[in-house]
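I have been asked to look over a protein record a colleague put together. What it holds is a sequence and that sequence's fold in token form. Please read both lines and tell me whether the tokens look consistent with the sequence. I do not need a full report, just your reasoning and any doubts. This is what I was given:
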Amino acid sequence: IGLPTEGREEVEKTMKMILSLPMDYAHIATFTPYPGTAIYREALESGFYDSDYWREFARAPDPRFSPRYWNEHFTDAQLLDLLKEAYYRFYSRPGYMLRRLFKVRSPGEFFRKTSLGVKLLREVSYLR
């Protein structure tokens, strides 16, 4: 989620595609240009990044470092909200929950999975 020119409509198409696939698990991420890639060089050349912040981090590592996103339509906070929304929509589907329920083989497994599911949904449900 969050390619440089991607707006809300494209994010919604991505979410609908993810929700349409018969998957038990999803890993959804925000787009982050990494050093040494063409897209990172493009971000530097276009002036989107005012400096080579990865190189600066390599020279002086800081535990508070966080990779930067590159999206012209969303703030970092909005991208993270979209990411959480995507996870919420994927893992809160009734069909998904039922499929997972029918795969449970013991009461202990049921309680472990229920606990993890509640934690996950609690983590991302603040959006609702």
DSSP finds six helices and no strands in the chain.
